[in-house]
Amino acid sequence: MLNVLKVWKVNFKKLKNIINRKFTKLKQTEEEISSLREKCAQLQEEINQVEQLQKDLETLAKEFAEAASKFEDADELSRQQKTCIAELENALQEAKKNYSEDIANGFNNLNTKIVEVEEQTQVLTDQVKFLANELTQLGSSDQESIKVLKNKIKELEMEKNGLEAINYQLEKDIKINPQFSKDINGITPVSDDDNISSHEQFKLSRQEATIAQQNNVIKALQDKISELEESHKLFKKQILRHVTLFH
Predict the structure, then answer these.
(1) Are 193 and 176 in contact (CB under 8 A)?
(2) 175 φ, ψ (degrees, to nearest 5)
(3) Alpha-carbon distance 73 to 76, whole Å?
(4) SS (H, E, C) the chain
(5) Do 221 and 154 contact (CB within 8 A), yes or no?
(6) Are 12 and 138 in contact (CB under 8 A)?
(7) Fewer Cβ within 10 Å of end Cβ, the chain: N or C?
(8) What secondary structure letter does DSSP report for 185?
């Protein structure tokens, strides 16, 4: 029975270590998802900046066009403004092209990575639930073992009580025999009474040794039950805490 309990205890520790590793991995994947989402937000902000730049350039181009129409006679100014507008438009088109390609590639990569991480997270979640269920079943087995041990303790205590009752009777017999031998001293030899007393003393000593041994066994079983119950409670709290934090 003690060997079985040791095996269960080792299994508890193994499952606990596996769950801790799984939760560490989940934590890492959650941090990775958070980082990817921050990158998405940053890219979106850059998109907004490019769109704002486009609006500003369009406004500036419109202002230049209006200014050019007002100063058509100023050939140099008109030429410079048109050149500037053309350069700005080219720069805007190039920026839009580059940003569009980078953003499209970035979003595709990020979306693919997020999908992969979410799938991995789901797999880890299922594994954690499976391990939690295994621990629950193992905990049920421990409860059954504790019940068996408690029944064994009850049996030993009943046997011990029976032995103590026999001891009590033997002690009474030992006290009565000397007086009895005095009363019938002329009929029964004293040596016979002494032999009876010695025999009962020997039986009493053996009974007391047996009781002491059973007390030690009961104490060991009670200690093992306490240890197993405490270990079961601790692992159950840890599992509930991990599952609660995860969800």
Answers:
(1) no
(2) -70, -35
(3) 9
(4) CHHHHHHHHHHHHHHHHHHHHHHHHHHHHHHHHHHHHHHHHHHHHHHHHHHHHHHHHHHHHHHHHHHHHHCCCCHHHHHHHHHHHHHHHHHHHHHHHHHHHHHHHHHHHHHHHHHHHHHHHHHHHHHHHHHHHHHHHHHHHHHHHHHHHHHHHHHHHHHHHHHHHHHHHHHHHHHHHHHHHHHCCCCCCHHHHHHHHHHHHHHHHHHHHHHHHHHHHHHHHHHHHHHHHHHHHHHHHHHHHHHHHHC
(5) no
(6) yes
(7) C
(8) T
Maximum alpha-carbon separation in the chain:
163
| Length of the chain measured in residues | 247
Please answer whether residues 92 and 54 qualify as being in contact, where contact means their C-beta atoms are separated by less than 8 angstroms: yes
Global confidence as pTM: 0.36
> Closest Cα to residue 132, out of 236, 40, 202?
236
For residues 242 and 178, give the distance between their C-alpha atoms in angstroms, rounded to a whole number. Answer: 72
Residue pLDDT, tens place only, 164-186: 676 666 666 555 555 444 443 44
pLDDT digits (tens, 9 = 90+) for 54-81: 787 778 777 766 765 665 555 655 666 6
Q: Which residue is it, tokens 């410079």? A: 80
